[in-house]
Amino acid sequence: MSNKHLYNLQNETDIRGIALKNNEKEVTLTNEEVKAITIGFYKWMLNRSKTKNLKISVGMDSRLTGNEFKHTIIRTLVSFGATVYDCNVSTTPAMFMTTVISEYKCDGAIMITASHLPYYYNGIKFFTEKGGLEKEDIKEILDLACNEKDNKLFIGEIETRRLTRSKPLIDDYSKILVEKIRKEVDSKEDYNKPLKGLNIIVDAGNGAGGFFKEKVLEEVGANTKGSQFIEPDGTFPNHIPNPENKEAMESISKAVLENNCDLGIIFDTDVDRAALVGRDGKFINKNALIAVISAIVLEEHKGTTIVTDSVTSDGLGEFIENLGGKHHRFKRGYKNVINEAIRLNKEGEECHIAIETSGHAAIKENYFLDDGAYLISKILVKVAKLNSQGKTIEDLILELKVPEEENEIRIKINGENYKECANKILKELENLVNNSDNMKFASNNYDGLRVICNSSLGDGWFLLRLSLHEPLIVINIESNKKGGVQEIISFLREFLKGYDLSEF
């Protein structure tokens, strides 16, 4: 049987597919695909490794098919002679850490997750000691998987269990975070409990992040009463585990207010993203979260460059510059942002953080790994220090200017040649802006077209770009006046009416 359909499962730098039957889409990711892709990864690792005795860790989030796929992956690897560490329910960043921390030192790591996608999805992420794999690496793995002709006799379930080592990864990783908080706060009153007296809650959305409540927050003294959706449940019955989702943010905001909390923490499914809610219930995500960590990093590294994605606000750029930093607004896509930060450092421009408005944040001191738990731990150090001064995390971003209005519009491009259509739209918009008295292009833009509008046309800006993964035009809009967003939308609606697009 041909495995060419495996290429359809590539999602840029990982694998994603439909793993359970649902009313809308057919199943595309089964044990057969998982087995073939695992063999591809194993052989890819052999090709790049100096050893033939590979050690590979395997973990999963709370998805319903996670355990089944985990057993398939482990059995496949063990049958090929690999040493396998079973890390059970884990986080994506913790799985990477198995390649670098001394107790593990794995050659590679496999995480079974589909991030925040609906329950019927699942997927696979791969790591080496250099970080998450690139798009080209995934293509090579699928090439090997598609050409797989090995009829190896797979060992039985009992033998698989005998040859697999169970590892308490989340316990080990939590200890690293706890020690970081204790050491960096260095409380003279209670070294082991630097967050004592603070009520901080967690919303894990029934993903893999519930460990943070008991194994991190409570270990450093926080009162976690009011935490919610801690237990892993792959049906995600309460809300989507996604710090960008309004319903999810409103849920933890309500919990913060009802429990009179000092802070709320929310993670996505596999904990590579995070966001906060302040004691007043206000969201600290997107631009506000970037502002918080930028303020912290700039205290430690004066003048450093902060790399973000393309949809950040003008107010954030001013905030960073007023703190003495440099804002480098790059492209959407967390790997794009991380790789740009790495590139800048290699070229001699100091950069200590790469962060997307989605909540992906990668810090140089932590291998440029996008790790929601590490990000929050670093922020909690500052929370403890501010608390000793009678201040809160919100005090860090008092000077952050927020727009009067903002909106994001996603417009479907009809027809098969959606990229050609998008390019025509961008070209026509470029010509229009160049001949306009009310618009001009933002400087140093790397993603689509970012257009500044004067007071005659909305008093703000919009960014028009093609979606990374779907046949969609995505438009982000901000305005400094009431009704300004609608003015910009009206202009865009008139401009786009000649194209074969869905209504907006």
Please outline the helices and strands.
Layout: E1 10-11, E2 14-18, H1 31-48, E3 55-60, H2 66-79, E4 83-89, H3 92-97, E5 108-112, E6 121-128, E7 131-132, H4 135-146, H5 157-163, E8 164-166, H6 169-185, E9 200-203, H7 211-217, H8 246-258, E10 263-267, E11 274-278, E12 283-284, H9 286-300, E13 305-308, H10 314-322, E14 326-329, H11 334-346, E15 351-355, E16 361-363, E17 369-370, H12 372-388, E18 405-412, H13 418-434, E19 439-441, E20 449-453, E21 460-466, E22 472-479, H14 484-496
Parallel strand pairs: 3-4, 3-5, 4-8, 9-10, 13-14, 13-15
Antiparallel strand pairs: 1-2, 2-6, 5-6, 6-7, 10-11, 11-12, 15-16, 16-17, 18-22, 19-20, 20-21, 21-22
Helix pairs in contact: 1-2, 1-4, 6-7, 6-12
What features would you describe in this structure?
By secondary structure, the chain is of the alpha/beta class. It has three domains: 4-167, Alpha-D-Glucose-1,6-Bisphosphate, subunit A, domain 3 (Alpha-D-Glucose-1,6-Bisphosphate, Chain A, domain 3); 172-397, 3-Layer(aba) Sandwich (Alpha-D-Glucose-1,6-Bisphosphate, Chain A, domain 3); 405-496, 2-Layer Sandwich (TATA-Binding Protein). It contains 14 helices and 22 strands. The chain has helices spanning 31-48, 66-79, 92-97, 135-146, 157-163, 169-185, 211-217, 246-258, 286-300, 314-322, 334-346, 372-388, 418-434, 484-496; strands at 10-11, 14-18, 55-60, 83-89, 108-112, 121-128, 131-132, 164-166, 200-203, 263-267, 274-278, 283-284, 305-308, 326-329, 351-355, 361-363, 369-370, 405-412, 439-441, 449-453, 460-466, 472-479. Strands 1, 2, 3, 4, 5, 6, 7 and 8 form an eight-stranded mixed β-sheet that branches. A five-stranded mixed β-sheet has the order 14-13-15-16-17, with helices on both faces. Strands 18-22-21-20-19 form a five-stranded antiparallel β-sheet, with helices on one face. Strand 11 (274-278) and strand 12 (283-284) form a beta hairpin. The chain is globular and about 75 Å long.
